[in-house]
Amino acid sequence: MKAISVLGSTGSIGTQTLQIAEEFPEQFKVVALTAGKNLKLLVEQIKQHNPEVVSVADESDIKELQERLSQSNLEGQKLQPPQIIGGAKGLDIAASWENADLVVTGIVGCAGLLPTLAAIKAGKDIALANKETLIAAGPVVLPELKRSGSRLLPADSEHSAIFQCLQGTPWAENAILSTGVPTPGLRNIQLTASGGAFRDWSIDQLKNATVEDATSHPNWSMGRKITVDSATLMNKGLEVIEAHYLFGLSYDHIEIVIHPQSIIHSMIELADSSVLAQMGWPDMKLPLLYAMSWPNRIQTDWKRLNLPEIGKLTFEKPDTVKYPCMELAFAAGRFGGTMPAVLNAANEQAVALFLEEKINFINIPRVIETACEKHKNDFKDEPQLNDVILVDNWARKIVRETVERNSDQFAVVPKTQ
Ligand code: NAD
Ligand code: MG
Fold first, then answer.
1. Least packed by Cβ within 10 Å: which of 78, 240, 270, 282?
2. Residue 172 — pLDDT band, cuts 50, 70, 90?
3. CA distance 90 to 53
4. How far is it, in rounded angstroms, from Cα 7 to Cα 34?
5. Tell me, what DSSP letter sits at residue 316?
6. Where are the domains positioned within the chain?
């Protein structure tokens, strides 16, 4: 029985993690939950999973949550009410909860950084969905892992695929440690990408992409931010940096392949030129289950892969002109130091402005590039946590200012119908 703490329990990753816990009650027990604003769903989750502690993002929601829980008569159902906490401190406490063995990081964005670090310092194993943490703060997170012995188990589907393929190699011991040390014998990584919502659109059509268009993904059902990241292909760019930190390969050995069916979740090429791939339906529950159950495999009755039903698996080269975000991510990754933190924060801010209909879809990469260019003047090679937080705030500010200054060019937003 593994005790789990779920950060971001009301989101796409969080709810799928809880579905797994519900489906396999003999394997997993939920001891801690944290969520943002969706108190209604959080109350349902508390009733279902009976955690020991619950943290809400905003401390002012603690009272409201307590009231809702007292109305829902937990004692009548013989459930012990959880300890309710909140704010940044509450998040840290839930992330490092003594009785938890594994922390699933389903918070979106750099907001996941401090709680993930708290969990690592407490020696917890991490099922890493919140890629932004590693991208912004790889140079800070990796040494902490080494110090605490906490293991980073990838839950992102591509990195889970690589991780699963590596289990079958003689260097599996190294591959599981994710300390940024190059995995011996691993020659190349091919990250697959579905191509996102706009894979069949022309550059001209992209100029008129609406929020609604960008938030409908053809293959995966995910939160809004990552769905927009998939449409710009920044998600794949971020995953390149994530792969670099997880598996220690240089950027010259990480490639992106467009694979519209999303059946192959990524591939590794080994020293002898053999290529291994992991396959499955596009369903996040599988990589999540593997991160939660590693090194074991749990028997499920989930829909089995049926290749004749799919018929064809196809592959294409990514279009870097239509999707500049991939190259921006490669460049930021190669720069290293604080640059990926700037790329990540600028992207978070640009996506937020796009979702508020303040900038056009095609301007997302432009404002990110502006922030990265400006950062070259005060870039830090070996950042500490404080440097990461400072540049994160700085990049968000630069993006907001750039958009305000150029509002006539940037804010040409086609209205959602
Ligand atoms: P989501 O928007 O559906 O959920 C985010 C969760 O985080 C919610 O519970 C929200 O309340 C909480 N949250 C947001 N800001 C917070 C804050 N400041 N403090 C505390 N809680 C906060 O997002 P998602 O799609 O589940 O993605 C979560 C993470 O997993 C992201 O980093 C994403 O890149 C990664 N990921 C998601 C998927 C997927 O299929 N959804 C796949 C791979 C990786
Ligand atoms: Mg992914």
1. 78
2. low
3. 9
4. 5
5. B
6. 2-150, 157-195+233-330
CA distance 231 to 227: 6
Indicate the helix (H) or strand (E) that contains 134: helix 131-148
3-state SS assignment for residue 109: coil
Give the Cα separation of 312 and 137 in Å (integer).
39
By most ligand atoms within 8 Å of CB, the mutation choice from 107, 157, 266 for ligand 1 is 107
Q: How is residue 40 written in tokens?
A: 């209604």
**What confidence category does residue 295 fall into, taking pLDDT thresholds of 50, 70 and 90?**
very high
pLDDT digits (tens, 9 = 90+) for 226-253: 999 999 999 999 999 999 999 989 999 9
Contact criterion met (CB below 8 Å) for 54 and 82 = yes
The CATH class of the 2-150 domain is alpha beta
Copy the structure tokens of residue 331.
Answer: 């460049």
pLDDT at 180: 59
pTM, two decimals, is 0.96
Distance 288 CA to ligand 2 centre (A): 12
| pLDDT at residue 413, as a whole number | 55
Ligand 2 center from residue 273 Cα (angstroms): 25
